Amino acid sequence: SSWRRRHREQSAVDTWRYHETWKRLGGLAPAGTGGTWLVAVPQEEDERTAAALAALGARGATLRTVAVGATTERTALAGELAGVGPVEGVLSLFLTGDPVLPTLLLVQALGDAGLDAPLWCLTSGAVAVSGSDTVRDARHAQVWGLGRTAALEQPRRWGGLIDLPETLDDQAAGHLAGVLRQVLTGRWEEDQLAVRASGVFARRLEHAPARAATRRWSPRGTVLITGGTGALGG
After folding, report:
1. Is the pLDDT confidence value at 229 over 90?
2. What secondary structure letter does DSSP report for 88?
3. 85-113 exposure pattern, b = at least 16 Cβ within 10 A, e = fewer
4. Burial of 139 (0-12, 13-18, 19+ CB in 10 A)
5. pLDDT at residue number 91
6. What's the predicted TM-score (pTM) here?
């Protein structure tokens, strides 16, 4: 009886355990991007940013770029953003260097300028979608933390987070264009995505596997039990 009770209690606790996973989205074929986008890029030109801009431009996107760096003044940036004209979306495209400060500055300046187009932050190596994938850059992972905070504080101006592969080949560029095309339709509900050559993956929360049996703990000496009057303490 005690054995069954102990395993029943452990099974209940195991059902409370969750972890993050990534699921490939179906029915999302590569497509032209279209639309007019404001793209924030680093002040110093680099090959990865240039390749991403070229890929989006080749797929029908109209791009208006603005350079943002660690030394950019917030007031000056807000004034520049206010004069870009109507756009359907904003892309934060800091794929090299430290993207955290420029992204934060962009979020603040967009609010100052009253620009309500949804902001999509593009990162690279911030998340891993499979066992063969790796988190390559902790600074880009920090942008995901910043992005989720911005989503709570400025939901009207928030679009989402999209992680790109290290090399944006033709397949991955097509998937990215397809996502942005869906964004323009107004029917897109995902805001945490990873684009890979094999497809587009969305972040999910699912039950974690039950824990493996561990060795029974035998305390010695004086033991303090907190919450001892509740169910878990018992």
Report:
1. no
2. S
3. eebbbbbbbbbeeebbbbbebbbebbbeb
4. middle
5. 98
6. 0.83
